[in-house]
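Example A, followed by Example B.
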Amino acid sequence: MCKGCVEGCWQPSRRHWWRAVRSPRAAARRRRGAHRRGAPPSEGHVIECGTVDRELVTGKPELGDVQVAYALVRRADRDAPAAGTILPNPGGPGVPLIEHIDMAMAAVDGGLLADHDLLLIDPRGTGLSTPLDCGVPDQDFLTLPRDQQRRTVTRCGELLGPRAAGYTSAATVDDFDAVRTELGIPKVVLYGMSYGTYLLPIYAQRHPDSVHSMVLSGAYPHDFDTLNRPNAEAVSLALQRICDRSGACDGEATVADLRAVNARLRTDPLPVDGERPFTLTEDKFGSLLFEAATSGVGADPDPVLGTVPAALRAAVRGDDAPLRAFAARAAASPVTENIDLYVTVACNDYPTLWSPDAQHPRPAVAVRGLRGAPGRGRQCGTRRPGDSAAGSGGGGCGHAGAGRALAVPGAATARQPVADPGAHRTSARTDSAAAPDVPSPWPSRTRNRSWPARTHWPAASTISSTTP
């Protein structure tokens, strides 16, 4: 549908997109600045594509620029003015949108595209918007050993240096507004899903005069538990519902089996064969299970989730084959994000829950933080990469217990896990003394000195508040 809009639009891999953006023709577009042209009508719509040049880090032209690519799908009824322009974001960070133009149109249609335009923008660092590549493997990052994950993120930070400060949610929404301005669109209707419910409220905060209305689906809470224990509860609830609704298993027994399997994986990891062999540790199992239990369950649940109760019961009885099969299948699920950008935005937006200059080992800080956290007896689960989604009775954060938890409340954030909604709203700061009051895509457990605190989240911290 988008052939001819922007070179490289339908190339099959992110590496091909990178070459397209770096092609001589793309370089010529970069010199000319903003570029627009029409595409042939498709299914009753005309699609206008182009790019807008933006500084990578505002006020620091020496750090380079990025091209922000867009595709403007015009309404079917061109005889009347547009009733509005819908600007969606499907999630991420790191998910390109122009590549998925068919799905985007289907998601917002239902008659809306008869009189509304649809503005699709690839966030900086993804798809056609100067895709970021700092050496983080997209498909394999989730299953890498934690030490290797940490080294990978360290190398990414070292490679980017001061340019890392350009990859933030705040910079992304500023790009969106620059595209809106370039196209002469007075206001947009924001439609956010998943991470989009984190990103687009930032747009509304920074550019309130540009927003007509906003729809959020699957919204991140404005106040949230920094230990992410609700994720563990979500996994347990999903398993219980599978059993209750199918009648094929006992929900409480399945959750008990989950605790037992996690306890074993904590000390006795399980090798998993396949195209990409890896070792199934407690934290890796938690990550894979959380993704299966929460991704697309409302519309298109992954059938692999239904195999979990039987796999857990078999593992408790000594047969690990079904558990290995689940892990191999879950790990092979295609990754839709540019993980380089996913990691970079998370490291920038989310304040580390320990000081990068701490003299005490992180496990000791973790234990101390967990002892002071409300509800510490409950298990916490965390979003990827590699973080446990369901704990195994006792304390800790689900990845091998408290002794190996890496992200806990601490002085670096000046916050504790939210016990009373609304009690922890803070005014954003532009230094590293306090955390910005914004929701988080995932706790960046792998951040270290390669991501200095003062360049870690300054862009996000310019948001004054997330109070509705």
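Example B, a separate protein, is given below in the same form.
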Amino acid sequence: MTIRGMTLELQSSSNLGATMVYNNKPVMVYKTPNVDKMLKDLKIFIEMNAENPQEITPEFEKLLIYNIQQAYMKYVPAIQEDKARKGKTSITCPCCNNIAVAKGMIFRCESCRNEFDIEGNYTHSPWKTEPTKEEMIECTTHEAFNEVLTFWKDHVVYSDVRDYLLDTLLDIQSYFQDKFNATGYRNYRANGNEKGKTTACQTHSMLAYRAVICSRPTPAFVLKLLEDQGVIILDQAEDAFYQRNEKTEIYNIFTSGHKKGIPQGKLSAADHQSYDDKSTYGFKCYNQQDDGKTDNPINSRTWITFMNKGVPKIKKLAYSEDRAKRIRFMLYYLKDKLEKDCKEIETNLDGRAGDMYDPLMSIIKLFNLSPEIEETMYVHALEFMDKKRKESDDTLPAIIVEGISATIVDNPLFGNGKTSPKSVTEYILNNYADRFPKLTSIKVGIGMGYIGLKQEETKQNGQHVYDLRDPDNLEIFSKTIEQYKPTGIKAKIEELEKEFEKMGVDKINLEGTEYQRYYRLKKYKELIEKIHEDGISASDVVIPYYEDEVPPEHTEDQMPHEEDDEPEQPENGFVEEEDLDPENDPHLQI
């Protein structure tokens, strides 16, 4: 038989078995007759080798069954004819429903056998039916957009109406995602069942480009779907993400699949010697119980909606299959018409927000949607950025940075510019225990080790000490501030500055060390403001711990008097603040 230009035949072998042959090469050997196994193998073989996939219909599967039967009987006629004649049990022809005669096997009737033609393009695709050129539905961009938007409003209940607009743009974007360099993910969460998580995912599966919804796909299935520019939709994603088996590989696909050019590298399964890289890029959607298990690498690139119970206008998606098919055929038409004109525009959104929202803004331009829609999504992007920034403030490194900043400002044990892990830990547990009940001193210690500040070799007052006046520590600390941008530092510095202003810093004669502390606070404030407002690198802002310049507001009358004698070192190994010469001692120079 010839299928998609591939010549397949069954040849007789020993012990009344058979061999499936493709282009004169054996591909499968059967020791005993097994029609179901032959059919399954043949379908898999066609899927793996065929091009331009089309859907295998039930009628085509029946034709395969008949073709295998006929081909096999050609080489072992005696046994098969004998089985077919015995009993003369009447069965129905799978093609025309006429009565045919056979036993234990399916045969077509005589009239259908003469019409048998299996040539053509056939293979199975897991996504919804794709239209031919003639089946595409001509429409305008506004008509298609309104159809998708109305479909979402009819079937899903959101508390924020902007979620309807977001999901509409994401479905449309999926038809053009190969034109963009990055994308975001969509996540639905809820406590308990019957909140609409699965319904939202099913809606994407009905409208998005080559979308497939499944609960526990294999990694190979996901990679193949993404290679075909499809959209993977995970129902109950916690099953795929967190079970400690091969399906954790799906989680790895999600962590790298937000951008083009980050393939999953493997060795070839054939020889384990050659390289094989699979694309992981593409829009993805998933739902899960609100258990807080999803890691930040995925969260930070995901639009998350917490679902609440509600009653949509149309309760069952099954009632809208034909409507969804019509919308898909409209979007296929627009994909074919506008694909050459689709280009990614760059907005002033930076970082991950730019990766996620730039494609959506490009779709708004491509479809010539209203300025109100563009403004709504731009505001949505700004809120998303602000929300993610606040979430980053609550990460452990950001909390530790705040703890270090608060304790180095005024530390009676170690002096200005120093703190200890114990002081930082106590500050964090005292201020964040209510917000993070599972936060322990061990976790804080691990977090401080992650930041990487150097401790002084000798202990002071029985404790290890961080000296933030050390250039290496200052650089590490500045980069950490730049990475996590904890707004708590800024608030703390502003609070301390107000306290100094109440004291009348510019009017009273402060001691040198106290004034230097205030001056350093102002430098910290400038650092934070430049990071937050100007977006410059924290490493470019130098806090002059070792400079000899006099603070600009400080007059010569206010500077402490110089001592002739060097201060004596106390027996406990560290210098008391009142014994130091602030002008000559380098540890007090800012």
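On Example B: The two ends are 87 Å apart (CA to CA).
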